[in-house]
Write a structure and sequence with these properties.
heterodimer; A: mainly alpha; two-stranded antiparallel ribbon; 14 helices; 10 strands; globular; B: 330 residues; mainly alpha; Formate dehydrogenase/DMSO reductase fold; 12 helices; 2 strands
Chain lengths: 442, 330
């Protein structure tokens, strides 16, 4: 039971943190892009937009920073068995991530509080540094996860790892795909959320030029990331098919090993009979996608001992959600770009705005679902093939207490953040609640 | 010098910097809670202004220390995480509420009532966190963490650990008050914080005495280190000297120098704790050497930290230069 609470607490903390971390990575880029547009067009709206984005970044970054601190402690509080033995092997990317986080915090401080104190060039440079450090920290921390999926860089003995090579461990196979997949997901989730918010405002108050300009900053990033992501995701899946066949089998709920395996869309795995029900099957699709060969053999779950199966239903559903959301976003990006090409301007019709509003949360949904696929898909291992999650958990009892405590805290913080961001946006709407100015202490 | 000693040094340095910067932030929260008198609002404003650009950065030193601990001394990290599960969780809650409340207050300052409520959360968490942090340090030094059966509360809830918690709280409050005297050019405000600094200084002295008295029974290992090892004695003597110096400088209103002396005092206290505990990381189970990662992992980590330092320190200098500009009174 305590293992379950430990996993739930870690999962909850990560699920919560990821959203804020993603915003901390992507919003600075959008903020810098608005700064650049302001510089080029001398349009005050873009400056105002970048100020708004900076405030949003400050709020989200603060929550991301404290939830990240919680995570760094939780590694030990919940998984001392893992960290005590493997901390030294994966310490390097964490140390580099710490550095990146440090520079991000420093330059965010300069950017936020220095607008009136430093030259525009230095200010812009700080913004660029924030965006770069954010990307770097996501890169490094994802490397840790890559290692957990694919542990290399040591020789395993009965007493633990020897001949440790931290650099090899940091760049375990698949690092290119997984880091790219994660980074693009961060930009995609944030850009879609931003487009969704401004689409909502424009639907209710058509003609607000500020929000049109905001769309013109966020839409290119949203469209680009939505179109790149399926390609990256495909590469990632190809790697998983070879390196972690059981994860792919669970994601596709493929119970039997098959040549020319079909790609299943949707469906509900039936664990009793070992079949997938109600799924739409595209013949030979999975073999083609995973191995670029319509007749390739794909390993089914039957190849693996029952006690090494991930939770099939959860992994399958999460995978379907991720792919479905990703597909919808890519489609919307295609339509948007086509209209942009035909009309010579970003589409602003109510129908398109509605579509963007509906798809606004999809980036975050896909990111969370994708993360669940990789984490659930690795179970029952914390370090695949080497250490089971059950062997890593803390001997401390009563883990229900911290779990519920942090659940309530995160719930409260989530509500507060939404409340504050709504106020930020409301401040840009005429006849909104009240004319808005955030009273800085100085 | 053996790599684990170097890494231990970096760990202590990170903790010193966390005490100097993050500790002062906590102290700022304490004075936010205790703001009073005719300049109550101005005091809070000064605290917020001093904290705003830097609190996020100051907080990173702690993360750095945690990362060094689990990368370089993984077994110690695991052992401490198990033994100090409850206080570390409390510390985390304090850190979460402090950071978010400060940010929420800054960006949601329209209604005084709402702002005051966030201020309360912020300052309440600022009192809780350093006290718990000190408690953890006290429990580490106490040397009852390892071995035996592990209860949720045994091992860290000792009179000695509690005394260290109170000591840390007083010390950070003192440090913050001294810093704040030099953060404003307004004489009345300077006097406010000078009085607070002097009061907190006395509290630090009393708490230190309490810690010392309890150390004999509560932390025999540290007591022994304190009284027998020569370099620990030198460190503690130096601490006493700068403490008196800081007090004198405050009395004579040399605020800029008082700030330096107070910082030196806090740094020496943290270093003194580490020195008295050496070579133990978790008394009496794990030493710096027995908890250390493999030599290759240590070397790579040191290189990464060097690269990090080459990036971080120039950035920090820039940050402080940008905000060194004389405080603007609004």
């Amino acid at each position: 039971m305590d293992l379950l609470y430990a996993r739930a607490q870690m999962g909850l903390s990560l699920a919560f943190h990821i959203l804020f971390a993603a915003a901390g990575i992507a919003l600075p880029l959008l903020m810098v892009l608005s700064d650049l547009k302001a510089w080029r067009t001398r349009d005050a709206d873009y400056t105002a937009l970048s100020v708004k984005l900076a405030k949003g970044t400050a709020i989200l970054f603060a929550v991301g920073a404290v939830s990240g601190t919680v995570l760094s402690f939780e590694l030990g509080l919940l998984w001392p068995g893992f960290m005590g033995t493997w901390g030294e092997v994966i310490g390097l990317p964490f140390a580099l991530e710490g550095t990146a986080f440090f520079t991000e915090a420093v330059f965010l401080g300069i950017y936020l509080y220095g607008r009136d104190r430093i030259s525009p060039g230095l200010h812009l440079f700080s913004g660029v540094m924030v965006a770069l450090s954010g990307a770097a920290s996501a890169f490094f921390v994802t490397l840790v996860n890559t290692f957990m999926n694919d542990p290399v860089g040591f020789t395993l003995t009965a007493t633990g790892p020897v001949d440790v090579d931290p650099v090899a461990a940091m760049f375990s196979p698949g690092w290119v795909h997984q880091t790219t997949h994660t980074l693009v997901a961060c930009y995609q989730a944030s850009a879609f959320a931003m487009v969704g918010i401004h689409a909502l405002v424009l639907l209710r108050h058509p003609g607000l030029t500020f929000h049109r300009k905001a769309l013109s900053v966020a839409l290119p990033l949203a469209c680009l990331s939505a179109l790149v992501q399926p390609l990256v995701g495909h590469q990632s899946a190809e790697h998983v098919a070879r390196a972690q066949p059981v994860k792919l089998a669970a994601a596709e709920a493929l119970f039997e090993t098959q040549r020319g395996a079909p790609l299943s869309v949707g469906g509900l795995p039936d664990m009793e009979t070992g079949t997938l029900r109600y799924a739409l099957e595209l013949p030979r699709g999975l073999s083609l996608l995973a191995f670029s060969d319509p007749n390739a053999e794909v390993k089914g779950l039957e190849e693996f001992p029952r006690d090494e199966w991930p939770p099939v239903t959860k992994v399958h559903l999460a995978f379907q959600v991720m792919v479905g959301a990703g597909g919808a976003m890519a489609l919307l990006a295609l339509v948007t770009l086509a209209l942009r090409w035909r009309q010579g301007a970003w589409p602003e019709g109510r129908r398109m705005l509605g579509a963007w509003l509906v798809c606004g949360p999809l980036g975050a949904v896909a990111m969370e679902a994708g993360w669940l696929v990789t984490e659930w898909g690795r179970q029952p291992w914390i370090l695949r093939g080497v250490m089971r999650t059950a062997d890593a958990v803390t001997p401390v009892g009563a883990l229900a207490v911290p779990f519920w405590t942090f659940t309530l805290v995160y719930l409260f913080l989530g509500v507060m953040v939404v409340f504050l961001l709504v106020r930020q946006v409301a401040g840009t709407v005429p006849h909104g609640r009240e004319p808005h100015e955030v009273a800085h202490a100085h | 010098m053996p790599t684990e000693l170097l890494l231990g040094g970096v760990l202590v340095a990170a903790l010193v910097l966390y005490a100097l910067f993050g500790g002062a932030d906590f102290g700022g929260g304490v004075w936010d809670l205790l703001a009073s008198g005719p300049r109550q609002a101005k005091q809070r404003e000064l605290i917020a202004r001093a904290l705003g650009p830097v609190w996020e950065v100051n907080h990173v030193w702690l993360i750095l220390a945690v990362v060094i601990l689990f990368s370089a001394f993984p077994r110690a990290f695991a052992a401490l995480s198990v033994a100090l599960h409850v206080p570390l969780t409390l510390l985390l809650l304090g850190i979460v509420f402090r950071g978010t409340a400060f940010t929420f207050r800054t960006y949601d300052a329209r209604a005084d009532r709402v702002q005051r409520r966030w201020g309360l959360v912020f300052s309440g968490a600022s009192v809780l966190s350093p006290a718990v942090l000190g408690l953890c340090v006290g429990a580490m030094a106490g040397g009852e963490l390892g071995g035996g059966e592990r209860g949720l509360f045994s091992g860290w809830l000792s009179p000695f650990a509690l005394a260290v918690g109170v000591f840390a709280l007083c010390l950070f409050a003192f440090l913050a008050a001294v810093y704040l005297t030099a953060e404003t050019s307004e004489p009345a405000l300077q006097e406010d914080f000078r009085r607070r600094a002097l009061g907190a200084g006395v509290a630090v002295f009393v708490a230190a005495l309490g810690v010392l008295v309890l150390a004999r029974g509560g932390a025999p290992r540290v007591w022994e280190g304190l009284t027998t090892s020569s370099y620990a004695l030198v460190l503690h003597a130096a601490t006493a000297v700068v403490a008196v110096l800081a007090f004198g400088l405050l009395l004579t209103r040399r605020f800029a120098w008082a700030r330096v002396a107070a910082a030196a005092q806090v740094g020496l206290i943290v270093a003194g704790w580490a020195a008295s505990q050496y070579p133990y990381l978790v008394v009496p189970d794990l030493t710096l050497q027995s908890a250390a990662a493999s030599p290759v992992a240590q070397r790579v980590l040191l290189m990464a930290l060097a690269v990090g330092a080459a990036l971080i320190f120039p950035s920090l200098l820039l940050l402080f230069r940008v905000f060194r500009a004389p405080p603007r009174t609004s």
